[in-house]
Amino acid sequence: MDRGEQGLLRTDPVPEEGEDVAATISATETLSEEEQEELRRELAKVEEEIQTLSQVLAAKEKHLAEIKRKLGINSLQELKQNIAKGWQDVTATSARSKLLAAETELLCLLY
């Protein structure tokens, strides 16, 4: 498989955030016009895929909001549910801690 056919299978290092892309290409490795064109096509394809995914996500979020509206779930109800769940977790953790402390005390008394 030549370099142009590999596409996404290439294992070239990906530049870190803020790193100059040009710095990742060594002085001896220059891209041919064909390789540059292939990369441009791949770039356009990936940008198009990102745009499509953004549109799909927006549609899903709109659908989610519509379902919540039909179910009568609003932000205040969600907040109440989250607080109730959080309080349940806190009390369960507190009860579990008390139980463990009692078990530890009992074991100390037995030994």
Order of helices and strands: HHHH
| Amino-to-carboxy terminus distance | 72 Å
| Structural Rg | 28 Å
Strand content: under 5%
Structural class: mainly alpha
How many separate structural domains? 2
Tell how many strands the DSSP assignment holds.
0
Taking the sheet with the most strands, its summary is:
none
| Tally of helical segments | 4
Shape, per Cα inertia axes: elongated
Mean pLDDT: 79
Poorly predicted sequence stretches spanning 5 or more consecutive residues: none
Approximate helicity band:
over 70%
Keywords: Coiled coil
Family: Belongs to the TPD52 family.
Organism: Pan troglodytes (Chimpanzee)
Protein name: TPD52 isoform 18
Write up this protein.
- With 111 residues, this protein is an all-alpha fold.
- It has 2 domains: 41 residues; 38 residues.
- Helices cover 75% and strands 0% of the residues.
- The longest helix is centred in the middle third of the chain and has 39 residues.
- The protein is elongated, with a radius of gyration of 28 Å.
- The chain starts with a helix and ends with a helix.
- The mean pLDDT is 79.
- Belongs to the TPD52 family.
- This is TPD52 isoform 18.
- It comes from Pan troglodytes.
